[in-house]
Amino acid sequence: MAARGALAEYVDDLQAGGRLTFTRDEAMDALGVSMDALKQAALRLAKRGRLVSPRRGFYVIVPLEYRAEGVPPLDRWLPELLRFHGAQLLAREELDGEVVLTVDRRLRPMQLGATRLRFVSRAG
Predict the structure, then answer these.
(1) 124 residues of the chain, pLDDT tens digit each
(2) Which of 9, 20, 53, 91 is deepest in the core (most CB within 10 A)?
């Protein structure tokens, strides 16, 4: 099992390299830990406001300057989330306090911090 704090160091290294997202599989491979160990470490970081997980297996790093909002700006992590789901963004608009995203496959709505996302599926 990796030393305590290994996920925090991994997150810091990703952020230093300009990345704000990672997947469960990437972290497990990089750290050599089990899924349960990763989940526990991720929960600890989430409690400190360092990570959020909008979808199972996908994590968004929250830099210090975005802790109050609870999540970095949408443009910093949405492309990677869509890639994680194998979805393509077709259109984006903001309506009544939520972001409506038209994509080419069905995705469930989500909320991160104050950001509410609703996905509208349109097969291409």
Answers:
(1) 455 689 999 999 999 999 999 999 999 999 999 999 999 999 999 999 999 999 999 999 999 999 998 899 999 999 999 999 999 999 999 988 899 999 999 999 999 888 899 999 986 5
(2) 20
Query: Where in the chain are the domains?
Result: 6-121
| pTM for the whole structure | 0.90
Residue the block writes with tokens 């996302």: 117
